[in-house]
Amino acid sequence: MSLPIVAVIGRPNVGKSTLVNRIAGGQSAIVFDQPGITRDRNYRPAFWRDREFLVVDTGGLIFDDDTEFLPQIRQQAMTAMGESQAVILVVDGQTGPTAGDAEIAQWLRQQPLPLLLAVNKCESVTQGLTQAAQFWELGLGEPYPVSAGHGSGVGDLLDALVPHLPSVVGGSAPEPIHVAIIGRPNVGKSSLLNALVGAERAIVSPISGTTRDSVDTLVERDGQSYWLIDTAGIRRKKYVDYGPEFFSINRAFKAIRRADVVLLVVDVTEGVTDQDLKLADRIIQDGRACVLVVNKWDAVTKDSHTLPQVERQLRSRLYFLDWADCIFISAKTGQRVDKILALVQAAAESHRRRVTTAVINEVLADATAWQSPPANRQGRQGRIYYGTQVQSQPPTIALFVNDPKLFKDNYRRYLDHQFREHLGFRGTPVHLLWRGKTERQAQRQAN
């Protein structure tokens, strides 16, 4: 299913991200009173009346300045326009028409796309009409007074948008897999996103902090859709000041929570750092499936022994992530990038898998026959009555036993390994819930 795209463009700080959040519902794009916060194209699914579409947020347009990231931001906005069915130009009703608005309007009149003019920050209905009337001089048709912050006028704007959008007939396509790309700054996350998409989807720069917002991209491979979420590089908390980077990192953590699978990107030239370990622990805490992506493999001098040696070193540091597949890639050259989505799909299937109680208890019977549960010093032996899966995403198995304290970490790891080996839970954490006899009896009484 290919959804029509609507591009939201305008000068810096006119409220584009706030309007995108309002149209799409919920808070996703970073909103902060500072120019240049949004740099890449950020796609969000939206729905109005009988139309589904993607609304794409873009960076603030400035045509007469080529400093820092402004040329790349202009290119990102132009690319968004090139794939869109309609455009919403956002202007500031409190500031009134500016030379920058006029320059953008002149450029838009040359584009063969339906255009809607949204005059933002019109909080008062009566004053809003007066504020919007000033923008007739841009020659772009009727200006719609809206307040993206309060929501007033946005419905009228979307009613005017609907006739320009084709209706989309839904099919039986599989549910999209949400994939978050996370890692420390400058490990190559945005380069990886561009390599997966096959286009300059995100701005790539050696300057730390280039990506500030979480950048969503929908791609399709072999009939499966993937929401790819590029995130800001996550630094140690003590180095982060309150402001854009603070919000960026919070967005990255939220991206992990809304993902099915997380691509943890590690720079092979630097190895696994303490910050990588903390990110891996965050993935496990949030119960997300994971693929370990080792980037910049092209920068390593190699022989036939290099790959297994390096993988052993990485695995020894990330031993608690031993269930995740590991792939060595170069986002710069494209080496092995085409194999990542197959690993993502396998991990997502494991993450969503449900196993019947009968199968789980067959595995338990074989596991306990091969290695009996331990006994304490007083000779009291652990007993497992039965197990059942109580949840997926991640797979969660409740084990009903006589006393959870009798089962130490070694035996718990043994059962975790047995479930993975026999049930195929590759690429996802598996949570084991140990329920004692008294808990089991209380549960029966409650039922």
UniProtKB/TrEMBL annotation:
Keywords: GTP-binding, Nucleotide-binding, Repeat, Ribosome biogenesis. Residues 4-169, 177-352 form the EngA-type G domain. CDD domains: EngA1, EngA2. It comes from the Bacteria. PROSITE patterns: G_ENGA. GO terms for molecular function: GTP binding; ribosome binding. Coiled coil: none annotated. InterPro entries: G_ENGA, GTP-bd, GTPase_Der, KH_dom-like, KH_dom-like_a/b, P-loop_NTPase, Small_GTP-bd. Gene3D superfamilies: 3.30.300.20, P-loop containing nucleotide triphosphate hydrolases. SUPFAM superfamilies: P-loop containing nucleoside triphosphate hydrolases. GTPase that plays an essential role in the late steps of ribosome biogenesis. This is GTPase Der. The gene is engA.
